[in-house]
Structure formats: structure tokens, C-alpha cells
Amino acid sequence: MSVLRASLRDDPREDTRARIEQAALELFTGTGFEQVTIEEIAAAAGTSRRTFFRTVGSKADAVWGDFDGHVDRLATLLERSGDDVPVLAAVLGAYVEVNDYSPADLPVLEQRMRLILTEPALQAHSQLRYADVDRVVAGYVARRCGAAPTALVPRLVATATRAAATTAFEAWLSGDAPSLADALQTAFGQLAEGFPGLR
Questions:
Q1: Cα-atom radius of gyration of the chain, to the nearest Å?
Q2: pTM (predicted TM-score)
Q3: Burial (CB count within 10 angstroms: exposed 0-12, middle 13-18, buried 19+), residue 51
Q4: Residue 125 confidence (pLDDT)
């Protein structure tokens, strides 16, 4: 889901955040998430422990990056899709667009997603992040359907589309899909068509 651009901006704070996140990802990938200390990350990024906490917040946040921005972009894409687009098509289209990464972003994305999907210490944190995505999707579906966000259908669409995205990322990471874009399109196509090959 991520999930998770690490773009550099003109803002020095964003440059610092990107350096910290990249250092963290490399250390986590090479040594292990739980084995790496915040002091080691700060040193590798050429900054201080205090700056780490002020800029990133936690080791888990260093893995997820600007996920709040990712969720906000998903919400914006859904609202801009228009009421003339079928609900499921709008959700799937927004998911694909928000995960349309440039080739230059893919190595960092791969590091992030491998950690997110395989690191046991991140699983509880991941559930909180996934809940943010589900809330946005369920809220959109509820508005379009005239239902409460907690009703069965909005919640089902939210969890099913997130599961499709997660499975697509897993297929991409394992090499079972030629590209992330192909994996996402295939997963969402199967979901939208009700798994036609299984009927």
C-alpha cells in the first residue's frame, strides 16, 4: 500500500528527512529493524538523535515515510473522480494512480515494502496505517452509496481493495509480476471482474 515516495524538496527539513529515511532503510535492510538503534541511524544520516525525533518521530515512521501524504493524495483522487464514475472503478483508479511510482523511486519503494510486509516488529504499526487507508476508502464509498462508513459494503470495499493492493505488492517483490504497475492492474482487474477465471 504503501505506499511511499521519498522525494527531495527545496525545504531543508525535507532534505534532512529524506537522508534519515534512506539511512534507516539501508541499515534496517542490512542489519535488521530491531537491531538498529536510532543513534546509529542519526550518525549514518549525519545528524543528531534529537533531529531524528523532531524530523521523523520513530523507527517505524522512518520506514513508512510520508504515508500521511500518501493517504491525503488517495482521498483527493477519490473526491476528484466525480460521481459519474462507478464507485469501484473510482477506488481502483485512485489506488493505481497513487501507486504510480517513477523508475527512480522503485528501489527505495522496494526497501520500504519488504520491511513493511516482512518485519514482525512493524506489524502493529502497519495495522494503524492500513486503518487510515480503509477509513478514507470507506468514507468515499459511504458517501457515494448513501450509507454509513461503518456499514458492511463500505468497509468491505475498503478492506478488499487494500488486500488486492497488498497482494500486488507482494507479487511484485517476489518477482511473480513483471512490474508493480502490472501487478496492481492485474489484481484490481481480477477484483473488479469477480475473478472471472474461477467461475
A1: 18
A2: 0.87
A3: middle
A4: 87
| Nearest Cα to Cα of residue 158 among 71, 99, 91 | 91
CA distances (Å), origin 83, targets 143, 145, 147, 192: 10, 10, 15, 18
Which letter does DSSP use for residue 72 in this model?
Answer: H
CA nearest 13: which of 39, 42, 51? 51
Cβ atoms within 10 Å of 195's Cβ, excluding its own: 10
Non-local CB neighbours of 183 within 8 Å, separated by 6+ positions: 168, 169, 171, 172, 176, 177
Q: What is the amino acid identity at position 33?
A: F
- Grid look-up 527545496 returns 10
CB atoms within 10 A of CB 40: 14
Give the chain's largest Cα–Cα span: 58
Q: Phi/psi of residue 85, each to 5°?
A: -90, 130
Residues in the chain: 199
Residues 92, 191: contact at Cβ < 8 Å?
A: yes
Question: Helix (H, G, I), strand (E, B), or coil: what is residue 48?
Answer: coil
CB 113 within 8 A of CB 70: no
* Cell representation of residue 97: 494512480
**Ordered mean pLDDT values, 10 residues apiece, the chain (199 residues):** 45 84 96 96 96 94 93 96 94 94 92 94 90 97 97 97 96 94 94 92
Question: Tell me, what's the pLDDT at 13?
Answer: 75
